[in-house]
Structure formats: structure tokens, C-alpha cells
Structure prediction request, 460 residues.
Amino acid sequence: MAALMIPANTLAAKRRMRVRSSASRKDHAIVKEFREGCAAPLPVLRRVAEGIAADMRKGLNSDGGHSLPMIPTFVNTLPSGNEEGLFYALDLGGTNFRVLRVQLGGKDGRVIDTEFEQVAIPQDLMFGTSEELFDFIASRLGTFVQKESGKFHLPSGRLREIGFTFSFPVKQTSIDSGILIKWTKGFAVSGTVNDTVGTLAGARYWDDDAMVAVILGTGTNACYVERMDCIPKLQGHLPANGDMIINTEWGAFHDSLPLTEFDKALDAASINPGEQILEKTISGMYLGEVARRVFLKMAESGAMFGGSAPDKLSTPFVLRTPHLCAMQQDQSSDLKLVGKILSDTLGVDDSSLGIREMAIDICDAIVKRGGRLAGAGIVGILQKMDADSKGTIFRKRTVVAMDGGLYENYPHYRKYIKEAVIGLLGSEISKNVVIEHSKDGSGIGAALLAAANSKYAREF
Prediction:
């Protein structure tokens, strides 16, 4: 029997016809308006990149009065590869923290061995006191150190040294001290080494061209290597020559961003309204929540889900970024996985193909905006660096180290970042910008920074 071959574009057309017939005009109007509000075309991205570069300069000049604090890290000694010995790291990120140990063997051995343990932070500690949170962390660290096996060796006469990766805004006063500015990513701890710095250190250990690091996970941030003479607010306090890593805290940027009514409602309901606006549009903590709010409006309008909103759909943050990723990767003809997620996670049973298709459209609009804005942020940092170095950044290979679960696990997000970078810089210049995944960079990087700044460094 001869098989009937139907062209892929014909199948797509038939699917679109079914979508139009199985979803109401009101549904389509809400999705259309949302997509238009989320749109991040090149002119918008250029304004964002220029705005970030301008705010970087303002933040380097003085504290306060602008969105980017541009926090000096006092990290001006990066790993060289010569480091030897046993070093620990404590990586406090979002809803989890990790403790690691790393055995370094110098130029020949490099990273000989690593071990780590990941610990979920109890919900009550995210809203308790700093003493309770750090007592819990110290206890788990102590337990981890006691389990040090024979394959890890501390050289005779040395004390154990640790690098601390702290994924929240801190005003550093030296390489080993600082003051918390504010909690982000859902923390509201009272009484109280940025993770991007660790990522950059980890990348630099293997690649001398690493100049920028970006975290895209539960939250987001970026840091980069800055010339000391380009930090006016530190002049007179530090040598005029050399480099220092600057923590941008770019999640606080807010100018020229394409925001919808759903973003504004999310921000208003957050623990920090009016703050961390870029973070709320590009980081993993918020993408699913924006989508849930769109679905909820469609349900409340009477157009979606049979004219009523299931209880699950009214639960904040019940829809998470991994759900969006899974829905976008559903290649089945009936979008079965999308239907399962809508049913299991949001309580929406018997969704039509049209509703499932619109769910993917909503996910794509959110993720496309997030990835493209992240790409614009990267370009803004590079353009600022290039201008100050008289064009040397874009004339040579420059590595941007990326870490975080959102970047690692969401292919569509990565695609949109790359698309934005190429669109803003052009195909030729963008060839010199190498975006590399630096898996576990922040944790191992903290240990490497402890090694690079060790009191025993002269022995390496």
C-alpha cells in the first residue's frame, strides 16, 4: 500500500485551522495583546543595551541615584592554574545551598577531585532571622567537613580555607567582608562572594579570555573584569593600575523594558515591588508565574477552561519554568504533554488542541522576551568595555561564562540569547563573542578564589 506523504507546512496549516476553530476570539485577543506587549525587537534591545551601558558608568562613578549599583568586589587576583591544596566552597544561591571541597594539583594536576553536597533551605528559614539561617548553614558545613575522605589531603601545617559564594547584593568592603544590601529571589531574612564572581573565576581558571560571567537561574546577575582606572568612586583608595571584578547587580535595571499588565501585577504582589524589574522579566523564578497570570485572566474572562478558573490556577507560582520548557518541547501531534501539564499542574482537564497551542504561544512570548533581554544585557556590558578599551574587546576572542539552571536546561532560552547578540552586534563581530556554559562555575570558582587569595599562595 502506498503511503500518503503530507508536507510539514500542510500539517502546520491544518493545526492552525483547528486552533482557530477550538478557541474563542476572546482567547486569541488576550494572547495577541500579550505577545505584542512582550515583544522585544531590535530597537527595544538597543535601548536596553545602551541603558545598561550608561547605568554602568553612573554606578562606577558614584553610589546611589541609578539602577545599577556596580559593586566593587575587591577581587583583583584571579586563579592562575598554579594553585595547589585542599579548598572548600560554600555556595548560597536560591532555594538551595551547596558545600564543596576541591583538591587542586597545580598546572599539571589542575582539579584533581571534587565532592559536594546540596541542601534545600527550609521555607521557614527564608523568612526567619539571619542567625537562624547561618546557624543552619554552618551546621551542615561542619557535618560535610567531618566526612572528608582519604582522597582529599590538606598539606601539613595549613588551615582549611573556604570561598563563600553569596548570591545576593552585598556592598563589599574587602575581599572577605561586606554588608548585605537586600535580599532577593523570594528571601526576606531579617537582621542580616556573589555567585557570578565565582563563575567568572572558575571560567578564568581554564580560559584567559573569560571577561564576563552571567548567572541565569532562579535569579540573575552579571559581573565582568573592569580596569581600575575606570572606577572613579574608588580612586584614591586603591592603586590606579590593574583590574577588578565588578558585580553589576543587573537584575535591578528597569529602563526601556517591555512590560505587560501581568508583569506589573506580579511586581506589585512581590516582596520587593518596584525593584529587580529586569530580574522579574528574565530569571527562572518568575517566568512560569507570568504565564499563570495570563492563563488566569483567560479563565476569568470566561473564554478559557470552560468559563471557570480551577483552584490550582489561582495558586501563585504553581506553574514553574520547567513546565514552560517541557511544553515548548512537546512535538506530539496532539500536544499530549502540554495537556498533561495543564491538567496536573493547573487543574485544567480536557483542554482542546487550540488551548494547548495557545499555551505554547504564551510560553514562547515570555521566554523569547527573557532570552532576548538577557542577550541585550550581555551586549550592553561588552559595548561599555569595548568603548573604554578603544575597540579591543570586539577585535579579539572574548568569553562570556554562563551558569544557572535556566540557561543550562532551556534550549529555547539559549537560542533567543544568541539571536539577540548576533542581531545587535552583527554576524562578524559576534563571532568573537564566545558564550560558554560554565557548569558549577560559581561553586568551584569560589574554592578557586580561596586558593588564588590563600595565605599560602607563595607556596604554590
In short: Residues 1-22, 188-193 have pLDDT under 50 and may be disordered. The CA atoms of residues 341 and 378 lie 33 Å apart.
